[in-house]
Amino acid sequence: MGNTALAIETAVDILKAGKSPLLLGPPGCGKTSEMSEGGLIHAAMAEHHGVSPEEYGHCDIRPCTMDVSDYRGYPFPNKETKTTEFFVPDFLPTDGYGLISIEELMNAPRAHWHAVYQLVEERRIGDYFVPDGWSIASTGNRVEDGCGVSSPPNALINRHMIVNWRPDQKDWEKWANNHDIDYRVVAATRWRPDLIESYDGKIKGPQSTGRSVTAFAKVFKTSGVNPSSEKSAMGLRIFRQAAGALGDDDAGLMSSFLSIFSRLPDVDKIAKGMGEDVAVPVEMDVQIATLAQLVRMSTSSNIGGILSWVDKCSPTMKVIFGYDIEQDVLETGARHTSNFTEWRAANSSLFA
Description:
Strand content: 5-15%
CATH superfamily of the largest domain: P-loop containing nucleotide triphosphate hydrolases
Strand order of the largest sheet: 2-5-8-1-9
Number of strands: 9
């Protein structure tokens, strides 16, 4: 379990207790997506309330795009009582179960924080009350992230329980493997975890985050560029695709790694069970790329020959390969074979 998974677990614990977490972390690390429909926090709270994720609602509130008066609603006169009443905003829930996400709270104008005080602490705004089945959580960037955040008042912090959200490559990889992210891009982040985990608020312009790597991966896949080609123009095209999302430095790392797929050892020979004389690459990045390719090629019929070659690799590389086969993203059935089961048992000490 990585840092991201631990943050999710902590946020869910806080929400189950009826309190409000404030998820603080760099941009692009998945805070919002995990609270939205399809996210792990959203799904965990749906299970907690005994409803399906489809039935469990989600209300997205973004103070940066709102007027303060939007929270309380539109005033109208009641002629009978000679008082002013308010229409409840239609974005606020009135029944059922769900999660209210107050997004980018730390960038909100100060006037909005007072409305959030009451919403989070008293679960109401004016005459509106949050239904019992709804939980409240907030997200925000940190001052050091360079996102225009100013130091929030202690009163705002005190009404939340802080959850420090630190991106983790292993947790992002699990997500990526289930969301059709190109396996070669995933392998690049395994080689350089800082593509997911490091964020420098002093950098002006794009840099790599989980969100920007995902954006590049979608462009890369749609373009149909083949990094296994030896043409230098292909590498330049990949660099241009990556630079717009990751910045020049990280784009150089990404395109450099992807170019490795043009100089792998004879993976076809390995897959055919004839890899005895195929040497294990010396460079770790080439090893990682080779294993990523072999995982992609593994089937129930050729896994035995592939495992014979993997046995020549270092213990670390064996763990990487075994982990990827166990994920079985492509549903090839390789992990259910006796070959893999026996290999996994023989190397059980590596997976302890």
